[in-house]
Amino acid sequence: MKTSEKRDSVYSAVERILDSYLEINNHRKTPERYAILRAVYGMTGHFTLDELGEKLAAVYKFPVSRATLYNTMNLFMELRLVIRHRFQGTTKYEACYAGDSHCHQICTVCGKVTEVKAPEIAEAIDAMHLKRFRKDGFSLYIYGICSTCQGAITRKIKKTKDKDKT
Fold it and tell me: How far is it, in rounded angstroms, from Cα 92 to Cα 115?
């Protein structure tokens, strides 16, 4: 299956979930909700509300208020279509349909977030037997210092030592 076909298939599935929820709960099917859903599932990786709003305005020509974005994202989190991450003082979101469980490495110096593939961790979590709890997915955060920041720290230390010698 091509990437575009897979993306369309995923979008159709999440749109059906949203349709069902709105119908069952007698909520309106607003164009804003569907535009935001399409934009979320068109994003790659993590994004902020501001980045989502910019994409809606620029790419989809569908600007929405920050309040509409916030409320709609809360609905999507309730439906488990989106997950919210709190990385180093910033809030980011990510589409999460079909149990996209993964690990994140987070630099405690610059705040850079990188997704990490760790099939052995996923297998271990899948094999876990939890009492009275159904697993839907997971996110693991690994904190440390990225190579760029580590290099900058090392250079700064070396520069300080060289300065002290003179």
Answer: 13
CA distance 38 to 119: 29
Question: Which residues, 6+ apart, have CB-to-CB distance to 73 below 8 Å?
Answer: 36, 40, 49, 52, 82, 84, 93
The predicted pLDDT at position 1 comes to 61
Indicate if the pLDDT at residue 15 is higher than 90: yes
pTM of the model: 0.76
d(CA 140, CA 129): 18
DSSP 8-class letter at 85: E
Euclidean distance between CA atoms 94 and 43, whole angstroms: 8
Directed axis angle between helix 66-78 and helix 49-58, to 10°?
A: 110
Residue of 123, 36, 117 whose CA lies nearest to 71: 36
Hey, CA dihedral for 44, 48, 52, 55, is it positive or negative?
Answer: negative
Mean pLDDT, the chain, rounded, equals: 89
